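Q: what sequence does this backbone want?
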């Protein structure tokens, strides 16, 4: 079996567009979420996605989409290697592409050869590092077409529906000081009931939720040039190896690969 190869791209345009190209990937992603839209072009293999309410498979030629904050897992299998290219688009940028209208995608696996081809040509420019002068204009037009044909404004921006109190709780900084007993006491319930509340409101356990928050914060620290050990210590990981393992588990690439992205 061929070894999995990946390359991460960070572009100083389109409000910080990022992208990931992966070949021969067969390692499962646990339940997680992204602060961005993930729009993936599936080239080889069957890409499985487990949402809270359904299971989706995307075949080669499909466009696979998850919304910001949408909890999902990718239970890949060793015998099913996948090759794909993912655009990571910020909510504000996709709203801009959609002429100022917020958008949400309820259709996850889209078969549209013409749109796939347009996205593929854009992905090649990114992967080859050869962006034509009108790249951003063409990117905006392409994602505008995607939003118009397959997006919906219904419930846009409300992917995680929580009570006001719980939303305020999540907005606080619990990266290093989260305490299950203290949190349960704050909500006037035992820890088991609080765990059920947390899972129902976020789709994740507190442990995985705050690991993901720490991973997102680590991306900014990596971009600023901090070394792996200092990031691990600042974000409460045991050591650099512990941090690297979690980063790779939830993103599919190593911290060094993320740092080297062009």
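A:
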């Amino acid at each position: 079996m061929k070894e999995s190869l990946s390359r991460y791209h960070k572009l100083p345009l389109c409000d910080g567009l990022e992208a990931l190209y992966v070949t021969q990937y067969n390692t499962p992603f646990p339940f997680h979420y992204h602060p961005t839209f993930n729009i993936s072009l599936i080239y080889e293999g069957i890409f499985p996605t487990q949402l809270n309410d359904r299971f989706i498979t995307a075949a080669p030629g499909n466009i696979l989409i998850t919304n910001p904050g949408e909890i999902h897992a990718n239970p890949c299998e060793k015998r099913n290697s996948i090759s794909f290219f993912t655009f990571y688009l910020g909510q504000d940028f996709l709203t801009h592409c959609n002429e100022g209208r917020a958008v949400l995608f309820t259709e996850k696996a889209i078969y549209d050869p013409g749109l796939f081809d347009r996205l593929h040509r854009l992905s090649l420019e990114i992967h080859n590092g050869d962006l034509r002068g009108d790249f951003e204009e063409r990117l905006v037009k392409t994602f505008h077409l995607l939003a118009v044909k397959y997006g919906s404004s219904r419930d846009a921006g409300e992917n995680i529906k929580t009570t006001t109190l719980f939303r305020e709780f999540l907005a606080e900084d619990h990266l290093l000081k989260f305490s299950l007993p203290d949190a349960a006491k704050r909500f006037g319930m035992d820890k088991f009931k609080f765990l059920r509340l947390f899972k129902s409101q976020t789709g994740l356990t507190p442990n995985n939720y705050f690991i993901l928050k720490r991973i997102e914060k680590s991306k900014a620290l990596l971009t600023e040039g901090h070394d792996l050990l200092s990031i691990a210590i600042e974000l409460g990981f045991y050591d650099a190896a512990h941090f690297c393992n979690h980063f790779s588990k939830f993103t599919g690439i190593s911290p060094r690969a993320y740092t080297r992205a062009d």
